[in-house]
Automatic annotation (TrEMBL):
Gene3D superfamilies cross-referenced by the UniProt entry: Phosphatidylinositol (PI) phosphodiesterase (3.20.20.190)
InterPro entries xref list: GP_PDE_dom, PLC-like_Pdiesterase_TIM-brl
Protein name: Glycerophosphoryl diester phosphodiesterase
GO annotation (BP), single: lipid metabolic process
Domain of life assignment: Bacteria
Domain GP-PDE residues, every copy: 4-241
Single GO term (MF): phosphoric diester hydrolase activity
Lineage of the organism: Bacteria, Bacillati, Bacillota, Bacilli, Bacillales
Length: 245
């Protein structure tokens, strides 16, 4: 039986503010094997960790990530719905700060390039340069809904693992992943059927479904030998994983 890695989606986002250092630290504490995070670019070209292009949902501020400098973004408070329970402010982190912390852990990291709405010119190369500077090539999987970015990374940094994200079911996704030189794909869990996982494994293509929080679905995907699952609740997924193995 394949060991399925547990990736904490936006960190331990069930219990802590998504895409913050707090959520990443707590994911590690909960026993996750890796974290997933979302990257965008600030007005001054810095890589910042935040999911939405708009600031309102997670920081309560108006406007767009792309219109603020990194220092302005880092002054925002990303605690949103956890303001009542968390005393300390949680800034929007720089990717550099997260990766420097991660380099001292045993965690893997799935960096999602969030450039489907705004193209963030040059973002792929900035991410590649940072991974190289911190010597994290072995610990990173780059993913995106923007498959042109996946191809760009595969051409310019073939040693870094990549995976297109698939929101819908497609025919023979392992063939598609190979066709764009990716070593895996990240399907919505509803489209990660057992047969697709089996065929992908046979073709040495990793399958890491998102975002799986339901106990029976987590069990199914682990039993089907998924390479990893991406979940908001790494504590629950780890418990289920440990029970199965
Ligand atoms: O990478 C999988 C998942 O994170 C993609 O969806 O919207 O949560 O970034 P989203
Ligand atoms: Ca994501």
């Amino acid at each position: 039986m394949v060991l399925t890695w547990i990736f904490a989606h936006r960190g331990f986002s069930l219990a802590y503010p998504e895409n913050t250092m707090k959520a990443f630290i707590e994911a590690e504490r909960a026993g996750a094997d890796g974290i997933e995070l979302d990257v965008q670019m600030s007005k001054d070209g810095q890589l910042v960790v935040i999911h939405d292009e708009k600031l309102d949902r997670t920081t309560g501020e108006k406007g767009f990530v792309k219109d603020l400098s990194a220092s302005e973004l880092m002054r925002l408070d990303a605690r949103y719905k956890f303001k009542q329970t968390l005393v300390k402010k949680e800034p929007v982190p720089l990717l550099r700060d997260v990766l420097e912390w991660l380099s001292n852990t045993s965690l893997q990291c799935n960096i999602e390039l969030k450039n489907g709405t705004f193209p963030y010119h040059g973002m792929e190369d900035k991410v590649i340069d940072l991974i190289r500077e911190l010597k994290l090539e072995e610990k990173i999987i780059l993913s995106s809904f923007n498959h042109y970015s996946i191809v760009h990374v595969n051409r310019h940094a073939p040693d870094i693992e990549t995976a297109p994200i698939l929101a819908e079911g497609i025919y023979m996704p392992w063939v598609y992943a190979k066709s764009i030189l990716a070593s895996g794909f990240h399907p919505h869990y509803r489209y990660a059927h057992d047969e697709i996982i089996k065929k992908s494994c046979q073709h040495h293509i990793a399958v890491r479904p998102y975002t799986v929080n339901n106990e029976s679905e987590i069990q199914r995907l682990i039993k089907a030998d998924c390479s990893a699952i991406i979940t908001d609740d790494p504590a629950k997924a780890k418990r289920i994983n440990d029970d199965i193995h």
